[in-house]
Design a protein that fits this description.
alpha+beta; Lysozyme; Membrane-bound Lytic Murein Transglycosylase D, Chain A; 4 domains; three-stranded antiparallel β-sheet; 14 helices
Length: 421
């Protein structure tokens, strides 16, 4: 009987401790998510990474440094620090090998520490160590976690795994999709940040933004933004929220290790261009793909190097899309609305999965006198859609849609109304 009571007591204590730990971390996340999102917009450090590092390095705000010095990232003084100091034993030794107290920075607030942490990672003097991080996809928290370990940010051999575990345990990556406009903190004013794709500066468009808005925030002429982005035609064009907007000219080829990209279902050459920061015109030229041609699923697109030989030109999709649809059904035997994500890739590549989003019902124009078989069916283009994906949804072909709408190419834009039947 006594043994059962002891087992029950141990169980209850473990449950209590587990709930307390969870509560402590959730309180920390709610308290600092706004500054993490703001700093992501300003400096380009993903909010998920910032919060996970803060949780790990400050014990969710309960460490001595966090409580007495508002220092959540274990930032030491260094020769350039002119502010208040706090001393405690850490990992510094004197000439005789004796452990001595280390000097840590004291901040007036945790927010100030969060900003200083961003400045540390973006310091031009440390670009040789951390600069490559800002070439990674800001939504790829696994690549960032591994990158920080690779750069020597922490000595723990499992630092990357610890960060990833914290991010996934508390779904911190949800904050990577947010902007300061989505936060409750109106006291933090930040300037617009950017990240890099193929060493080219990029920002993510906010809701209802135009190239003029982005140009003012980034001090880039709006006409240059129009010039650098193939699907932006006007300075006052309303941009899709979350879409990539290049602030510099795209490169002629990919500067990473990857040589080829395998086309996915519904993916366009423009999608590849955006993903790797390569000029669409140069991408077509390198692969001998004519305007209007669509590479088939699985076709290998060359990202860098010399032009492919004519005989090695990527396979072009059949004009009869029905054949490819049947192929897809045989391959995965999934329902139309299921999405299959590929495994994560290494930190050297930007291999996040792109897919069509099918939102809303088809818009139907109908009158009492119109026979059912002659009804005109229209579709409003939404984020991530391609003409191929739309054709697949309505069980038609790209050629049929092009003919119905008298379109000269397969290029479509968000909000465009397309007749599909």
């Amino acid at each position: 009987m006594l043994k059962k009571i002891l087992i029950l007591a141990v169980f209850l204590v473990s449950v209590f401790v587990g709930n307390a730990q969870s509560s402590k971390q959730e309180i920390y996340i709610n308290r600092y998510k706004d500054i993490a999102i703001s700093e992501m917009a300003r400096a380009g450090v993903p909010a998920s990474i910032k919060l996970a590092q803060g949780i790990l390095e400050s014990g969710s705000g309960k460490s001595t440094l966090a409580r007495k010095a508002n220092n959540h990232f274990g930032m030491k003084c260094g020769p350039a620090w002119k502010g208040k100091e706090y001393y405690k034993e850490d990992d510094d030794y004197d000439d005789n090998g004796k452990l001595i107290k280390s000097c840590f920075r004291v901040f007036d607030s945790a927010n100030e520490c969060y900003i200083a942490h961003s400045n540390f990672l973006t310091d031009p003097r440390k670009r040789y160590r951390y600069g490559f991080l800002f070439d990674l996809d800001p939504k790829d928290y696994k690549a960032w976690s591994r990158g920080l370990k690779k750069a020597g940010y922490a000595t723990s051999p499992t630092y990357a795994e610890k960060l990833i575990k914290v991010i996934e345990s508390y779904n911190l990556d949800r904050f990577d999709d947010m902007t300061p406009d989505d936060t409750d903190d109106t006291s933090v004013v930040v300037q617009r940040g950017f990240f890099k794709v193929n060493n080219v500066k990029v920002v993510l468009a906010k809701e209802d933004e135009t190239p003029i808005d982005i140009g003012v925030a980034q001090e880039v002429p709006s006409k240059s933004i129009v010039k650098y982005n193939e699907k932006i035609k006007r300075s006052n064009q309303t941009l899709e929220k979350g879409s990539r907007v290049f602030l510099q000219k795209k490169r002629n080829g990919y500067r990473g290790k990857q040589k080829y990209h395998a086309m996915k279902t519904g993916e366009t050459l423009f999608d590849v261009s955006q993903k790797y920061g390569i000029s669409l015109k140069k991408l077509r030229k390198r692969n001998r793909i004519e305007d209007g041609e669509r590479p088939a699923k699985g076709a290998k697109i060359k990202l860098r190097g010399f032009r492919v030989f004519k005989k090695n030109k990527p396979r072009i999709a059949s004009t009869n899309i029905e054949d490819e649809i049947k192929e897809d059904f045989i391959d995965d035997t999934k329902k139309d609305d299921e999405i299959e994500f590929e495994p994560e890739e290494t930190i050297d590549l930007d291999e996040s999965e792109d897919f069509d989003t099918f939102e809303g019902e088809p818009e139907i124009e109908d009158t009492i006198d119109t026979p059912k078989q002659n009804r005109k069916v229209y579709h409003m283009v939404t984020r991530g859609e391609t003409l191929y994906g739309i054709a697949r949804r309505y069980k038609t072909t790209v050629d049929a849609i092009l003919t119905l709408n008298k379109m000269q190419s397969t290029t479509i834009s968000i909000g465009q109304r397309i007749r599909v039947k």
